[in-house]
Specification:
The complex is a heterodimer. By secondary structure, chain A is mainly α. Chain A has 13 helices and two strands, in the order H-H-E-E-H-H-H-H-H-H-H-H-H-H-H. In chain A, 72% of the residues lie in helices and 3% in strands. In chain A, helix 4 packs across helix 8, helix 5 crosses helix 8 and helix 12 runs antiparallel to helix 13. Chain B folds into two domains: 167 residues, D-Maltodextrin-Binding Protein, domain 2; 252 residues, Periplasmic binding protein-like II (D-Maltodextrin-Binding Protein, domain 2, 3-Layer(aba) Sandwich), CATH 3.40.190. Classes of the chains: A mainly alpha, B alpha/beta. At the A-B interface, helix 12 of A face helix 5, helix 14, helix 21 and helix 22 of B.
Chain lengths: 309, 505
Amino acid sequence: MGSVGTGVSRVRGSRPLRPWRLPRGTLFALPAVLVGLALTLYPLLYSLWVSFQEYNMMTGTWRLVGLANYTEALHDPALWRSVRNTLQITTPSLVLELLFGLALALALDRLRFRGRPILVSLLVAPMMIPGAAAAMAFALLYAEQYGPINAWLSLLAGRRVEIEWLSSIAIAPYSVVIVEVWQKTSFVMLFLLAGLSLIPEEMYDAAKVDGASGWQTFRYLMLPLLRTTLMAVIVVRLIDLFKMFDLPYVLTGGGPGVATEPVSMYIVRVGFQFFRIGAGAAQSFLLFLGVGALALVLVRMLSTRGVAR
Amino acid sequence: MDSHSAPKIRRTRREFLRTVGLGLGATALAPYAIDPSPAAAQGTGGKAPRFDGVTLQVSAVEANYMIGFKLFEGELQQQYGIKMVYDTVPVDQLYQRDMLEFSGGTASHDLILVQPGWLADYSRHLEPLEPMARKYGVNLGLGDDVLPAFRTYMSWDNVLLAAPFDADQLQFLYNKVAFDRAENRSAFRAKYNYDLKPPETWDQYREMAEFFSATDWVGDGKKRFGAVESWRRGIWCYSWWLCRFASYGGVYFDENMRPLVNTPAARKALDNMMAMRKSTPPAIATAPNPEMRAIFANGDAAMTINFSSLARVVMTPAASKIVGQVGVAPVPGVRHGSELYRRSSFGGGGWLLAVPRYAKNRDAAFLALAYLSQPGPSLSLALDFRTTVDPWRRSALQSPKWYEIWPDYKDYVRQLLAVTEETPRTGIPDLQIPGSEQYRSALATEINVALVGDKQPQQALDDAAKAWDGITDRFGRDQQNAFWSKQNDALKKLGIVYRPELAGS
């Protein structure tokens, strides 16, 4: 293994491997790898250690509590409520982002006109805005008493319209979804646009020769070839959505009540408002395991389909 | 190396002698303690210590408080050579930011603002003030001049750790157009069979809110809200609930540390808020307080209960459309026979100035703290409406300057000063035991969840009580009980005891 780096090492290939005889490339990469591992592994291992402890903020001391934080988390109705909130925001967001993203990607892939690059730039602009800034802008737009959205709707309706964008438990989660979709659809679009650009033009020509309709071309040509890209974008978006924090934090503060408090926000509340750092760390690990398992399932589905194809 | 040692020792000796000299001098001069204002320093010929080149990092919390600090930048620089830079952080993130830093034995600020309820948790991270005051011969003047409720806030375990900066209290404000208009008075009398005047009880307040929200009380064809408060999750819904809860005879725990936040007093308080929802803005339980204050200042609500700073904001033409149309009164209460029992709350108790133990410039920060809490600067802070700082000294409430800023509204000033002085005598101080923020946060979440209709009120209160028990157990029941007993004794001295009969039980 260590013998492929240089001519010298190839000659000494059969000798036992010593660190000072590592291939030059590996040696050069080693510091970066070690720093990378330290930066990734150390916080993970430290928070794992913390998750088995209880912190006493009055004395500043730690006490080993074993798996108590984990069992408590699994029996915490507020945590499960936040999981439900996360799913309530994540599911429609993901579906809408995929639908709109796919529609935009298809349109931009097929339509060729002079202003196309400008249009693409404009479409990806929301993605470049930080989540907190977008949330602040929408908080002003959604303001029920003096906000512009209700004012425009009132103007259109010819009477006072007062939609409780952020204060109704039925509406507020979807107000978050709207901002999420507005901001992240372009990310999905860019991914899929890249996927579409990889489909050779000859395949479209062949489909045309075979007399395939537009729908048939999409259904039987584009969609199967986009599957890998689609699965990848779903995994990335799903992980991102499950970690959602800044948008609801700024837009709704998790309210009304706790109706828009996603799991990551709840964990922060437990960890830093209740100052139960161990309990928060345990919940983070459960979230990490949950999202990891979901991603693994999706990636396996992706690779199985890839092999089948 | 050796060549450097000798001068080092000489310097240390010189410093030591200077410190001893200063200490002895300060002890000798203690009875004539120095007032740290520039005028006083000049007057006594006392030499103020210099901190030229020192820049204090100030945790100003909000932009309005930053304005307050900036008012004294020039004087602090002239007096001590101190400069100040600020940062602001949302109130609901402040506790976690500070505690995270303190847990690591660091502080990025030299001078911080702390809520009284947090003092127990912050205590081991704060610099005791009395040794500093002795060191510099400074009289902090935190005795009888401080209004009663705020006097209980400054110390933890008998150690003075902080000085008041802003003394919040909830007050009742009303739009006089709504209450004085003859049509409103007669219609109200006809419907409810009593006179329309500032409500004495929570039931009257609810009825008036219902009446105004259903009435064109200005007479211009536009519908307005009956009342506006701020019930956002956090300190807001908690404080507005607390003044009802305390009026219905509630206190935080019983003698055995059993939570009383799910008793009939708690339920009556929550029910009153829920019954008022139809007369208040839809966003009352979610929107930030400035938005709610603007509704009243724009003349779109007949009544409000809000922080006392609003009473000054609504008299400022730049921020209010109802200048001169406002009346102020204590928050409503509960009538029991001939007794009217009112207990306002202090909205978290306002803000205290403190110096973290880990601050880089503790001495300079202490002198800035001492300066800002003197009668003169604290009055100036309260008189400037932009700071939203409320007075906390008795002498500040007796100042004729209040009449100078509103010469045309002397009655209003009299009302405002009377209410501002009465509330700290009758209001319920915030819970001040270890973990107060956790207790408050758990309860506030449940109150807000009930207010938005996501949980049944009694269920929410029962869940809050359960959460409170959990917090007590985590901190240690015996320890918490001991601390609560101390606060309970202090409350009893203010006449605050659990009175179940006020909630009809």
